[in-house]
Structure formats: structure tokens, C-alpha cells
Amino acid sequence: MTAMVDIGDPAPEFTLAGVPEGLYSLSDFLGHIVVLAFYPADNSPVCTTQLRSYTVDKKSFENLGSIVLGISPQGVASHVRFAQDQSIGFPLLSDEDKSVAEAYGVLGPLGFYRRSVFVINRSGTITYAHRTTAGLTFSPSSVLLKAIKEAE
To answer: Any catalytic annotation for residue 47?
Structure first.
């Protein structure tokens, strides 16, 4: 099992397919603050609530020079439908082999995604990390916006 990354560690690099359709690499966002929101499944009730709430607050994230990226194990086709049906306003990335989840230490004991959020500063260092065990709650925008301000 891979060691769990934490605050102060360099964020593991990745390249994933996502929507809007294209490839997304963490290194593409150096110079910006990145919020990585790992979520278990498209169209599940808590995931939908979480990602819609981040969409509602998209301008607040952008005003602080940050970008939100959602990551889950579903494929791009599922993300396309989910993003359209729920009007998700930021990229959704597909981690079908769960390698990125493993690199960030967000896989539960049975290999399922644990709802988790990381804030990565402009130089690529993790400045906020929150992993849930049950996955029924999520970091609200207000907590993430505070973490973004502290990442400066």
C-alpha cells in the first residue's frame, strides 16, 4: 500500500481524461491553487449535493485564484451525463484504475473511494487534506475557501 500523502507533502502528479473533454494534468495548474475533490460516484445523493454546492460557489473559488477538480472512478461518459444533468461547473476527471486515489491515500479497505478533499498551493504542495471514513459528509465551500486563503 502506498504511503498516505498529507499536509506539507508535494501533491502527486497525474494525468486523467475528463470533462469538458480532454486530458488534465495537475502540472497544468501550477501557479494556481487547486482543490481536488475525490468523490465516490456520479449521481449519488451526497456526491451530487457536494459538487452542486461547489458549483454554486464557483465564483468565490475563482476570485481566490483557485480551480476545483472533481475526481471519481467512473468513466468519461458517465461524467458527461452527470455534469450535464446536474449542471456541474468544473472539470470532472476519470480515475477508472484508481491509481490517483491510491496515490492520495483515499481508497478505503475494500478499494472504494473515500470522499476526500485536498487543497494544493501554487507551488504544488498540499496545504489542506480531509478524508472521510463513512463518506456521508463533505468539506463545505466555506471551509475550503478558508483553506485556500491560508494556502497563499
So the answer is: yes
Residues 19, 35, 47, 126: which is the catalytic one? 47
Could you tell me which of 149, 137, 145 has the C-alpha nearest to residue 45? 137
Cell of 31: 501557479
Residue boundaries of the structural domains of the chain: 15-151
Residue type, 143: V
What pLDDT, in 10s, does the model give residues 86-109? Answer: 999 999 999 999 999 999 999 988
Q: What is the spatial distance between Cα 58 and Cα 9, in angstroms, rounded to a whole number?
A: 26
CATH of domain 15-151: 3.40.30.10
What is the CB-side half-sphere exposure of residue 5 using CA atoms within 13 A?
25
Q: How confident is the model at residue 55 (pLDDT cuts 50, 70, 90)?
A: very high
